[in-house]
Amino acid sequence: MSGFDISMYREMFLEEAEELFESADNVLLEAENNGSLTDEEMGQLFRDVHTLKGSGASVELAFFAEFTHDVENMMDKLRNHAIEFIPEMAGTLIDGLDVMKEILQMECDGEMDREKFDEMTTDLLKQIRAYINGGGSVEAASPQSSSAPAKEESAPAPAPSESSEEKSINGAWGFFAEDEEALDTDGMSDANFGFFDDMEAISPDSQIETEQEVAKPAVGKEEVAKVEAPTPPAAAPAKKAAPAKKSAKESGGSKKSATSTIRVNLDKIDLLMNNVGDLVITNAMLTQFSTTIENTKVRSSVLERLELLERHIREMQDSIMSIRMVPMESIYSKFPKVVRDISKKLSKKVNFEHKGDSVEIDKAMIEGLTDPLMHIIRNSLDHGLETPDERVAAGKDEAGTILIAAEQANGQMIITIKDDGRGINYEKVAQKALENGQIDENQLSQMDKNDKAMLIFGAGVSTADEITDISGRGVGMDVVKTNITKLGGIIKLDTEIGVGTVITIMLPLTLAILDGLDIAVGDVKYILPLSAIVESLQPTSEMIKKIGDGTQDLLMLREEFIPVVRLHQLFDIEPKHKRLEEGMLIVVKSGNFKIAMFIDEFLHQHQVVVKPLDKNFRSVEGVGAATVRGDGSIGLILDIMGIIDAQKKVEQDHLNLKDILAAS
Fold this sequence. Notes:
Strand content: 15-25%
Shape: globular
CATH architecture of the largest domain: Up-down Bundle
Helix content: 40-55%
């Protein structure tokens, strides 16, 4: 064990701890709302906390293990019906998990000492130990039980005498488990030590770990988590103990074996995807080269085999993509606790609903999507939803509703966040943006209410009258738009004063592969994402209208006027056709905005492996990414949002020039 690196195992433990905390939090949130806990839920809570304590101790997190020991004792008493569950316990246990998270982070950062530990835990430990000793509150417990709890129930886990290396390994195999009943004699599966099982499979390089499937809270896929402002309930009378339906071992028996799933570092999957992308490119090169074979029979045989290889590569791509995809439930699970905590702080009542839990999204997009959604939900709670008194006065239910829903449509992920609050004061937002210099009076006069409300996504724009620790600095919504744009998505907003707000986010399903259409402008070929295309056509002269000084064209399509963008002008290329009637127009859409791109011709459709351009070269206006073609050349993938922004800039420059000429 020479060279044993505890930090590596701590990092692995932190990953598993996050999942266990979410699992326990969701069960307790349901218990707080429903006022009850089933035997199965009690068993799950105990297993989650038991795993956290044992694994935390094994990676030398002594303070974390010490406090978690008391929380585990309380949950053990509950599952064995030594004490009966009352609604107040849910709030205490939720607070206990919050303190566990704080201690864990501080101890991993080297910021925890005995003084800080006592300050953070003393009051909560008194409450927990009061419940353990049969009291409904701190006051119900005797002074002796509050200040000097029995050793066997709540004393800190004793420090083993072996070396730190031995302690780490012993802890990994469950030697820190004080409750022998929690251990499965056939394989210690109920100890649920997660990543420490099959220790020989762990290496610093691979970051691969076996894990058990964490039991999910007993809720439906389309869940409604009701969260209300705290009202201290009267102590519930103790209920008659119900016989335990399952033993600890039986309740864990339905789980999958510890080796049924593995956790793999996403970088490894990305590398595998890149390797398959290289196979696609090599196969295309071979296909192109095979056309030079003079013998017709040989050429046909080679092409036939290359087509088979291409089909296998496509299947491999699909398989790897399925590995990268995770359900939206992994994002949703982070929100109920946030909604509960903020609603309590703001004294608001909230029904949090989510739909589309099983809809899958690329794992690489999870991190970039979680923060924007969190900002939106926090803003809905703080600025959107009214207080119970305000809602009743407005003729609404005193509990507001926040709904987040996800669906896949037209090759996109569409996420909708809706609340039934007061709506966005778009006039106030527009005035703030005007003061900040983000728009001018001319632009303001041409905006409708949703255009004005969209200005909330500008930096420094906030409708808050005062800054709080929740919001009000005008940076959160700016971060939302920035992050969504980085993911290749777009965002739109609809609001109604007194009715509520709907924010819609549209994202590509994956950042790794896209279906593209090759288009030609002069001698240059570009790739256009298929998901952005509305339709293509060869216009007639009657369909083209000129505006302003005659340099700006509009396509009149079914009584809709669509700005025309000449790609050869944007990229400074000599085109084959200069008259619109001689070339092709492809209508593309991003959000609610459409443009008609003028090109010489469109070629064929195919899948491409996306390579980021800014990491390998630099950012280019109108180009979002690149790929490698079959002949080894670089293919540029057009950025529709960037082209639309460039078109808006041109239109604005025309307006400004017109104003200058008029003034002179």
